[in-house]
Amino acid sequence: MNIAILITDISRTGGTERAVVTLANMLCKKYNIVKIVSLTKTTNKKSYYKIDRRVEVDFLNNEPLHIGLLSKIKWSVKTVFLLRNYFRNNNIDIIISTGHNNNWLIPFVRNKRELKIIACEHIVYSSIPKISRFFMSLTYPYLDKIVVLSQKAKESFIKYSKVSIIPNAISFKPEFLSQLTKKKILMVGRLSSEKGLERLIPIATKLKEKFSDWLIVIVGEGPERELLERLIKESGLEDFIILEGMQQNIETYYVDSSIYIMTSHFEAFPMVLLEAQSFGLPIVVYNCPEGPGQIVRNNESGFLIENNNADEFIDKISMLIENQNLRQDFGKKAKMNTDIFSEKEIVKKWILLFEEIIN
What we know:
The protein is an alpha/beta fold. It contains 13 helices and 13 strands. The strands form 2 sheets. Strands 3-2-1-4-5-6-7 form a 7-stranded parallel β-sheet, with helices on both faces. A 6-stranded parallel β-sheet has the order 10-9-8-11-12-13, with helices on both faces. Strand 9, helix 7 (225-234) and strand 10 form a beta-alpha-beta unit. Helix 6 packs parallel to helix 11 (310-322). The model has no long low-confidence stretch (mean pLDDT 93).
């Protein structure tokens, strides 16, 4: 079986890119040909994440998608022609597409009846623009399957086509767990508006008053960095919130921290929470739509905080800081909670899905 995984730009850094690489690395151990097909033209024709040498990567050199209806239509037409030409010249049995901008186009690419098409949705449904939902309503019924990350997501997409739930697999296999003794609180991810970084500032201000010997370390880059730097400076938190930028050795940050926090406004299925749990970190996170509640077991492996309740967020972090035994107990249960998201378990779900749609 020959499989192609379609993504907008594999050279970017983010949850979707990491999930695609992890999926390709899993499937290439089972199937003869696994390709990552990256649409967008880029000067950096390689992935930030390590790709198995058995996985082929092809760039189609399309222009980036710009804002505006006319630009989107032109981009979509060009993308269909590029993909039809690509799949005409490559023998593919299953296309796995990621992202609604790509997914609604895939039915136009089918060049043979036997070609199976799967669309993966990795973002919260409510964040998809209405115009995109309209296009999705026209073409998603012609998909063989939609794959989502959670039950809540399935409830949103089931009106379009048949839906399967397959969570992302953990990409890390930690050699060491955190000892939960360092006075560091960790955040990892793209510095973008949906991450709710502005909600961190009042939390950090109160924590600094109570625990000035602790630090909040943020690993990641993005368009909100300048705003975040300004908010940190205005609040006098330069010595309490440390911005580390992008880091290749992210594992060392997990091992070197004692608590993981997330202040996002919405998350589909945040991989960083799985990664943090795999290193034995207790978690404090806003219970935003849709993903955190699918991963964190409240009062067992961490705390799910009522959205926007900063006082509760501060109280739960304080509780973990002041009680190392509680950190250890939560961390142990967090590690156990990751077993169901192992590569071994997730690849089984993909194999069963392939068998279902082919047979």
